[in-house]
Amino acid sequence: MRLTGVGRRYGPGGPWILRDLDLDIPGGTLLRVEGANGSGKSTLLRLLAGIDAPSAGRITGRPRTAYVPERFPAALPMTAGAYLTHLGRVHGLGRAAASRGAREWLERFGAGAYAGTPLSELSKGTSQKVAVAQGLMGTPGLLVLDEAWTGLDRASRGVLDAAVRERVAGGARVVFVDHDPGRLAGEPCAVLRLGNHSARPAFEDAARSARQPTMHIVVEPPPGAVLPAGLPGVPEPLSDGAIRLTVARPRTDDTLRILLAAQPPWHIRSVTEAPHP
């Protein structure tokens, strides 16, 4: 997927929100978009998702796309289950697979009991779970998340973290905005920084781990155990059966807490600062 000379403004004489953006987003990319309020983050995400068209330049190679907006239109006259099933069909699933996927994603987010509830009657938190679940139906090649974690409980944030890792590992592109600077920290992550006083963004094609100190956590798994869902960091199997996790320093305590709370708990062999790349 490529953006060539892309710009966006509202109205023929309006100010440019974005301008002269050249950007490649290959498969398997996790791209974080950063910038102050009003810098054009949501505008860029809407362009990537195809919701808005660029005022200048062009976007080519866009794969099938799923988009989780900042504000979910919860007033749609459908139940949560029917809405997710419909979106599954839009993403190319058959009727049975879409219905099954709707149930499974609601269960994963702890909202299975609300499958038959009209969207307009859901709480804000449950509405956000449905909004995120619709973006995860099927296997889109581009997943665009505009502050999708906002309003989710901790367990659901972990589910979404794990789903993002799965999508990227499977070759999809994930582009996201989130106000938590630690979100998916330690993951291989390119950063697109939008300036407050310029419509021309700067693209940092580097792992986020290179921008802040990282830690190596070496752990030994209990027999037959798999890494807990939502675990921060990048796992690397070692020759003796242990696993080394590369984690941004701010997420170290969260990582250790998840590992020690697992049943059975994982054995922590060592925690050391990773060499600077």
UniProtKB/TrEMBL annotation:
Keyword ATP-binding: yes
Gene3D superfamilies, per database record: P-loop containing nucleotide triphosphate hydrolases (3.40.50.300)
Molecular function as annotated in GO: ATP binding; ATP hydrolysis activity
Entry keyword set: ATP-binding, Nucleotide-binding, Transport
Claim: ATP-binding is one of the keywords in the record: yes
Cross-referenced SMART domains: AAA (SM00382)
InterPro entries per the UniProt record, alphabetical: AAA+_ATPase, ABC_transporter-like_ATP-bd, ABC_Transporter_VariousFunc, P-loop_NTPase
PROSITE patterns (alphabetical): ABC_TRANSPORTER_2
Domain ABC transporter: 1-221
PANTHER family: ABC TRANSPORTER ATP-BINDING PROTEIN ALBC-RELATED (PTHR42939)
UniProt protein name: ABC transporter
Species the sequence originates in: Streptosporangium nondiastaticum
